[in-house]
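Let us practice reading a record.
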Amino acid sequence: MQKRPEDAKKEEQLFIYLQKSYADAQKGIPNSMNKIIEEVCRKNKDIPQIGLWVELFNRLLLQLQRNGNDAKMVIDIVLYKIPWFTSDNHFQVLPQFKKILFTILSMSPSQLVTIYRFLVQKLSLQMLIDSEQTRDDIPCEVMGQSYPSKAALQQQILVMTEAYQLTAENQIVKLSESHKQFIKEILIHHPKADEKLKGMQDIGYGYFPSKNKSKCFYIIKKDNTQEDISYIKGIDGLYNDIYRDKYFKSSNNIHSDAAIQIICEIIQIYKLSKEKLLETLSDLFPHKNQSEIHQRVYATNCMKLSDRIPELRSRIFKMVYIKILQIDSEIKYDPQCNNFIIKTTLQQQLNKKHRDDMCKKVDHLLFILFDYLDSKLGIANKSIFQMELNEDLIFKIFRELQSVFQEIMLKNQYYRMAHYVFLYFCSLPNSLQRINQLFLSQLVQNIRSNTLSKTEKINSLYYLSSLLVRCNSIKSTVFVKAVELLLEYLNDKSQQIEVELEHHLVQMMIFLISTKSPQLEILKNQIHEAILKKSSTLQHIHYDILVKFNEVLLRSKSDDLRQKLIEITANTISKHIGNNCQGDLITNYHSPNTPQKLIYDHESLLSRTSTQRTVVHKNQLDFYQPFNSMTLIYSEPFIKEFYRYDSELIKDEGGSLNNSHVEEKRIPHYHDGEKPQKKVKQ
């Protein structure tokens, strides 16, 4: 539509003013330019006026390009000053913004990384609070009553406490029921609310246990004990929750979708820039110490972006998985408290909340990957057509993750939860079942390899045994073939097998024949003969495995071979008990100086006598790991159909069981059933 003469004249005057202001700013006189920026960036600015200024900035860029002048200042203003994604009015003129972006790229393709970084930042959380409004000025609501600021809420509590007169230093006055509920609404946001409010019966008010005559609230427990608690910390926690929930919002709706759309349009034109985009996505992925919300929103938007750029799907999936590994490596096991701990790079033990945060982050990120795979496979609606349609994609993703497994995961033993992705892949139905054959085959090749390190080979062995025992979806033929190849390797005299690897191989054979005897019936005699030949290694085998093996032998049909094995295992077990020793295979696996080694106090699945003590493992990949679903809450539904829990293993094997040692299903360490529910009202 043709502009009216007066509008065209006004636009021309504004453009001249913009040119002059830019020239002055280049000379170090930024006053006029700052006024223009302030005017353009006002969030209540009329949409037509915003559109007009955007067109003028675009004209200025084109003019600078023609004249060969520096346009860095204009680019910085366009990208970093104007609130495109945080102001609804500015968001309405996004088409003009895209026009400017392509003008910038036509002027200088080297700005591609800068533009990618600007757009990828919109895939994370965005702060939508006005810069002039501080956190303490946010209005809040408690018990149906609104307060305009933190100071107003604090004043209300001070007024409330004037109703309670204290006549002695050690006097604690119980609050009325209405005051009690009011204060409780605030105290549940205290950083130590779980600990402080546990067993609460009443809330009291009295002097703080010090000489400064200050007063505080007290939690009166059911056993009549009293514990002081800070309402100021409760108010701080309340405002932190409101600030996060109300003034930070996920940009994974229309704002992030718009950023993704612009990225895709740029990729269509600059097809060779995909590597730069991947590097940017990885660089801007939230740090492992950032909150679970940041991690989840960013990962979700990355997967949405991968759907728009099919050729990058598998690599983006791989990038997210590597970030999961970085968080997972921070989760360590503490034998003293029989729980997980988190250690920083300085090996300092952090508190329980930080530990729980790490577990939640991994769990949420795994959930996102599982949900993405389920959607591509059509598992939710059992669509075989959809599964066949995306078969190539799934194999491509698996291949990418297999390289991560070989290059990263096998080289150490720090990962506790990320392995679930491989259990998932090994459990896919129909034509995708060959994935578990490929993965098991790779593990067997690793074990038989002459080029991999001892650690990589032993880790491969433990991953293999864990899969064979835990995964319900592996066919018997594949299972038997894997064990057969390992038996062949173990019996091959031409192979120079490391001593530790040989011990672990024998232990694996004993463990599998004890827990999977029906599937291995065809190989039973071969396995027994191999164990008999390697009987000198039995002194290094874990006590529980030997006991279980002895029980299985006693229940099986007797012959000369089995009788010899019964005698040997019984003698070895007697030596273990007499020497107060549980087998040194695992305890000798690590050197004392191994960094970040994990000591796992494993509760036996078998009944113990009073003379038997619990062994301390120094290898986290023992025969029940890595697939321990106790650590998951959100992701477990994706794998529970094909995961065999400890209770199921015992039931299948018909072995004895001490109930106190049964793994509690679906009770993650970071989930506290007694935790008070926070009620945040805006």
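A brief commentary: The mean pLDDT is 78.
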